[in-house]
């Protein structure tokens, strides 16, 4: 076997061509640090709740979500279950959800223009679509607008979702009537909201 540190000038691994331990160690440590940051980043990224069908399980797993939803409910009057139902339908509770075809992003799937409007109107300039608390407040704000502009009850998950998806102008025009898939989605949101509401009453998390 040929020694890595052979003293013979004509060896396959002469000193002029051998590894330099100091530099190798530095590079290895650099690689370890980079990998550590990547692993830490993946570990700290928010994950969807393990039981998305159960509002009580969601809030037990993520008590900070319950606080955020309750805060939004008190501020805007939109029930926690309607907030959850809309966010579930829009992003499946994924913080970085994106359809790719529009600027919709994050938990609430709000497009850039509407999100900017929300931040300007509420003064929450640092709000992020990737933060559940900000998403819940956004849903509360938008559904409050829908009630004031369109007369839609904040407890009406079906019509609130149609207005949320189509926008206030689109809802007035009835653009949703030509979209059977959207009407089905709105019914799903309404069912989510009803189920979540019953669950929250049973586990006394309202």
Topology (SSEs and partners):
Layout: H1 21-44, H2 55-61, H3 63-76, H4 80-91, H5 112-122, H6 132-150, H7 157-173, H8 180-202
Helix pairs in contact: 2-3, 3-6, 4-6, 4-8, 6-7, 7-8
Write up what this structure looks like:
- The protein is mainly α.
- It folds into 2 domains: 1-45; 55-202, Lysozyme, CATH 1.10.530.
- Helix content is 62%, strand content 0%.
- It contains 8 helices and no strands.
- It is globular, with a radius of gyration of 26 Å.
- 31% of the residues are buried.
- This is Transglycosylase SLT domain-containing protein.
- Keywords: Membrane, Transmembrane, Transmembrane helix.
- Residues 32-203 form the Transglycosylase SLT domain.
- The chain crosses the membrane at residues 24-46.
Q: Percent of residues in beta strands?
A: under 5%
CATH-defined architecture of the largest domain: Orthogonal Bundle
Q: What is the overall silhouette? A: globular
Question: Roughly how many Å apart are the termini?
Answer: 74 Å
Helix content: 55-70%
- Give the rounded overall mean pLDDT: 87
The number of domains is 2
Derived from helix and strand composition plus strand pairing, the structural class reads: mainly alpha
**Residue windows where pLDDT falls under 50 for at least 5 positions:** 1-19, 34-41
Major pleated sheet = none
- The CATH topology annotation of the largest domain reads as Lysozyme
Q: How many strand segments?
A: 0
Write the H/E string, N to C: HHHHHHHH
The CATH class designation of the largest domain is Mainly Alpha
C-alpha Rg (nearest Å): 26 Å
Number of helices in the DSSP assignment: 8
